[in-house]
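hey team, just a heads up i'm posting the complex here instead of the shared drive bc the drive is being weird again. everything in one block, sequence lines first with there labels, then the predicted structure for the whole assembly after. its two chains so it's a bit long, scroll down
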Amino acid sequence: MRALVIDDSRTMRRIVAGTLEGLGFETLQAEHGRDALDQLEAGAEVDLACIDWNMPVMDGLEFVTAVRANPAWRAITLMMVTTEAEHSQIVRALAAGAHEYLIKPFTPDAIRDKLDLLGLVPVEELA
Amino acid sequence: MTATVEYDQIHAIAQEVFAAMVDGDLGLLLPWDGDLPDIVDALVAWVDLHGEWSGRAVLVTGSDTAHDLARVLLGLDDGDAVSRADLVDAFGEIANVVGGNLKSLLPTPGTLGLPQVGDVLPPLAGAARVQHLPLSWRGRLLVVDVWVTLPTATSEGTS
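-- predicted structure starts here --
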């Protein structure tokens, strides 16, 4: 499986991507929502996008809305990974089309648990 | 704000952030015990919060300590070189996560600015410091401050 990690922080991209790679994912990275959309429009195929909320150029909520507006990307699972912890923000993200929501700071186990809920933990990891 | 964000809450946030992102274990970010040393060659990271409640979450530590934090976050070995860009990104992200979790404690929704990092903290007009947490990370001083913009802010808050 392949994941796209979208965060303006290189540090956070490294943490999220490293965790996903440890679970068997291949990873791509994007610095903001527009960068991520550019990669998808160029043909990048991903099963999962992990999306920060607050980013320059295009924020995570705009990215989720854009992905959900394109039927070609319907199969992509969208998980917000953000410091936005208020209930109202979680509701906004889920209403826009995000499937899951993970609040920073998180542990590797928390990511794994969310992926498990989404049925996205690679089979070899579950074995 | 002063009534809704307490010292213990800020400390709990900082501890959780360091446990999850840096140390992998709670209890390694403790209240500073003893006289406060001067922070030499300080690095400051902050994130502003906007809304009905406005303010700023600030982290301050020495450059050496910030470099060590960045090495941990970036998966580098002790002594590995850390670029200025990586240093700024790593320390800024810690402030970002602390600020985001602080925002979740506020009674009204607001927005979070992007993290910024510098050698000095620029003034926040009309603001007063409402929490000051000198903490010890691996025996080295790291300070977490919370500032709030008050309608009746005193001159204390503009420095």
